[in-house]
Amino acid sequence: MNPVQDHGGHRGRLAEPVHFIGLGGAGMSAVARVLLGQGLRVTGSDAADSRVLASLASLGADVFVGHDAAHLGDAGTVVVSSAIRADNPELVDAQRRGVPVIHRSEALAAAMAGRQVVAVAGTHGKTTTTAMITVMLQGAGRAPSFAIGGDVAALGVNAQWTGGDIFVAEADESDGSFLNYVPTIAVVTNVEADHLDHYGTAEAVTAVFRQFAELVPDGGLLVACADDPGAAQVIAGTGQGRRVRTYGYAAEADIRIEATRALGSTTNSILSFVVDGLDAQQELQLGVPGRHNILNAAAAFAVALELGVDPAVAAAHLALFSGAARRFEARGGGRGVRVFDDYAHHPTEVAAALTAARTVAGEYAVHVLFQPHLYSRTSEFAAGFADALGLADSTVILPVYAAREDPVPGVGGWLIADRMGPAGSYEESPGAALQALTSRARTGDIILTVGAGDVTVYGPQLVERLCAGEATGAGATHGA
Questions:
Q1: CATH class of the domain defined by 329-471
Q2: What secondary structure letter does DSSP report for 179?
Q3: Is 128 annotated as catalytic?
Q4: 158-186 pLDDT tens trace
């Protein structure tokens, strides 16, 4: 059942106060932060207390821990995400009272009204690409407003309202809600089968991305990856009237990536590459690892130049980009072992993260703690996850993070582990999983926590265990 009622798209100002059910989520909190910046009265609730709620409260939001119909108060608009269940007491009461209930994307669309909108979509890479665009625009003094589905160190927050003429937004395709946006510039980083619990087929996923691309008005710009077959299908099926600019390593790309090389040491490497096809060749440097991030950077650079940013200024600020939260994020280390965290939750994303990890690890080993996200995704892509995780030297797989789904009999992390042989194991107990990883890691190795659920909390715990082993002299080195 879809809890969102149709109230005409909400392109105008929202009735106040605006109440968010599930305020602490990354996407929801970003929209709330923008509305607060616009001076709207915001209230909201979440199942558990968090730093996000405290931050929004400090900005003037009225926040509640737990869900209760009383929290609605005199709400004029209720905002939900697809994660909110139909029996949520606040949602039920809002519907009973006839309070307009809208999806978070509709609230964001209302907030972006009247601005030049850059909407970044794709199965993978949209958070990082959105962040890169925002960092370059900020560096050029363009003061964009933005809403991103993850924290970015260089920005300090995941969303901000500046009142400027540009709004940069991450466009989430998971439930089709990105069709509520009207982008002047749309970016499609890639298109793959995902969220099949919502779409059903890979063909339906491609079709909805094509609809998204066609939202770009005449004279607008579609930026898409020439290397990605799914994005190529979207471009081929998009009607006339808008400009299309492709990027990638492919010879036919409008903006071609060439001369990729690594500068510096393995542990502190900088990627250098050249983009050609603009007015002149431009060398770019990037401090985050991985071929996928080079592609993200090329897309972001193309958007920055479209918006009038000087190429040298854009390049300088791109070089300072340190990554988005949970995108190969360093969490610390001990005993000579480094710990990183990554949000990857699709086989392609996992493979990209592990390819980057292998580059950073050099001659040393890569160990992974993987938490599958959603029963539907685990069932659909078990073999793909097993293949991607095979890039690691060892993997411990945790139980599925259910998120919005109920458990499915016969589906669990073991479906992946059973396909991996001795390199993969399934562990119900997080404590036992952490012990296994810290026991096998040697000086110089990398441990990577991977998944879109709460696996991120185990990064600091791994660091603590490694440091405790260091203090007691329990470390080991390769060849010892």
A1: alpha beta
A2: G
A3: no
A4: 999 999 999 999 998 878 889 999 999 99
Find all residues with CB under 8 Å of 455, minimum gap 6, and list them.
341, 369, 370, 371, 398, 401, 449
Which residues, other chains included, contact 115 with Cβ-Cβ below 8 Å and sequence gap of 6+?
145, 164, 165, 166, 167
* Whether 127 is catalytic: yes
Q: Which residue has the tokens 């209720």?
A: 78
Domains 114-319 and 329-471 share a fold: no
The answer, yes or no, to whether residue 2 has pLDDT greater than 60, is: no
Catalytic residue among 43, 77, 123, 127: 127
User: Could you tell me which CATH class the domain 114-319 is placed in?
Assistant: alpha beta
CA–CA dist 47, 69 (Å, integer): 13
Helix axes 311-319, 291-306, angle to 10 degrees: 150
Mean pLDDT of the chain: 88
Question: Which residue among 90, 123, 126, 173 is the active-site one?
Answer: 126
Annotation says 184 is catalytic:
no
- What's the CATH number of domain 18-104, 3.40.50.150, 3.10.129.10, 3.90.180.10, 3.40.50.720? 3.40.50.720
Domain map of the chain by residue range? 18-104, 114-319, 329-471
